Amino acid sequence: xxxxxxxxxxxxxxxxxxxxxxxxxxxxxxxxxxxxxxxxxxxxxxxxxxxxxxxxxxxxxxxxxxxxxxxxxxxxxxxxxxxxxxxxxxxxxxxxxxxxxxxxxxxxxxxxxxxxxxxxxxxxxxxxxxxxxxxxxxxxxxxxxxxxxxxxxxxxxxxxxxxxxxxxxxxxxxxxxxxxxxxxxxxxxxxxxxxxxxxxxxxxxxxxxxxxxxxxxxxxxxxxxxxxxxxxxxxxxxxxxxxxxxxxxxxxxxxxxxxxxxx
Length: 263
Fold this sequence. Notes:
single chain, alpha/beta, Nucleoside Triphosphate Pyrophosphohydrolase, five-stranded mixed beta sheet, metal ion binding, NUDIX_hydrolase-like_dom_sf, NUDT19
């Protein structure tokens, strides 16, 4: 993969030790799956500073309030998630909460219920939309949103999938854990707007073919994740798969004056 020429100077400076890479922010991304192995993808607006025009999974940076211990928690414990994600407990708590929060913000799908055995059936009402918008503009904390509705975070509905770190030459960097989750029964996604101008449900192989034909743009982590998902015929097979979460950080190298990304 060839990168823009403007990264060449940064790559050289970092290699020479004269420039420190920008710190990577903790982030979470969720691959939302239907039973028929379609995945939910959003096209980021062309005006976005990061990944403009790319088709991506729902996700975003961890909000410091995502680590609030007041959030009602069901499923694997924070300690168990820390072990799976290979992180400290505070980071694990923030990542799991960010995964659920960002999924709701960007798709309208909420992995939470009134008890550890339930999931909310419908989030399409005006009151839900008001809360979603308040979460997006950060006027409402995720803990307060769950508490006022008496909801429990269903962490058991998430499965850790991968860990990608943005190359050190980028000016915006993220330390992102990828999760997978099934679309809960009764819930449906919506064209929620915000950072995206289009949403689609697509089979992984179809999305890859569109990208190979130049019809859509996929970032390397999205492309690789879709490649991995082509090995499964049904969503339940994805959740049964064994995964070991190890960091993947693409390297940037210079070949004959051209910057290239090596996976």
